[in-house]
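Structure Section — protein described below
Tokens — whole-number codes for backbone shape
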Amino acid sequence: MMKGALKVHIPNPHHRDISKHLVKEILKQAGISSKEWDNA
């Protein structure tokens, strides 16, 4: 996932889509709101 200069690497050994819950948790840990991410 990338936003501007911020890159967040998400390990995905199964090569399938990641869940919405996991994306929300990653954004939370990165300090990015869902709304902010959607507007990027």
In short: Residues 2-38 form one domain. Helices lie at 20-30, 34-38. Strands lie at 2-3, 6-7. The mean pLDDT is 82.
